[in-house]
Design brief:
The chain has 171 residues and is α+β, with helices and mostly antiparallel strands. Helices cover 48% and strands 25% of the residues. α1 runs antiparallel to α2, α2 runs antiparallel to α6 and α5 runs antiparallel to α6.
Length: 171
Amino acid sequence: MKKYDVIINHKGIIDLEVIDDILLKLKNYLHENKIELVIRKRVYTLAVESLDNIYKHADHSIHIQKIISEFPPRFIVEKICDDFVIHTGNIILESNKEKIISKLERINTLSQEEIIQLYKKSLSHAEISDKGGAGLGLIVMAKTTAQKIKYDFDKINDKFFYFAMQLTIKK
């Protein structure tokens, strides 16, 4: 097997049909390449959480169609040696940037045990938001990767940023 492999490289709108297609391709790759079960489950879990984040938090209003065409959502899964790397990107409102940074910075300062405790606490106090989430996505990602979450924001204009995130699963 090659030392480097791009498994999924999707750029464009992410809807339920696209999510199903991506997850099926990923599942087939992981199975066909006999990736060990623990790693397979982690990669798949991160893919589901990442795609769910992009889908639920994307702004598809008619007002930003031009911006979406210039800065499309992205979802990339790579295998580098024995590690898997997931890259995501999507447009967020400027008003949400600080909240996301705050959550990521807090999560990135915690130990794995502290992340597990935060997950349990958040799970028992979770309330479903208007967008259908319980605020557990980033916590689940941190728990699953056992690595720091890398991220970046590129300013698009006064209202929007492109939020990029990288998740790594080490063997």
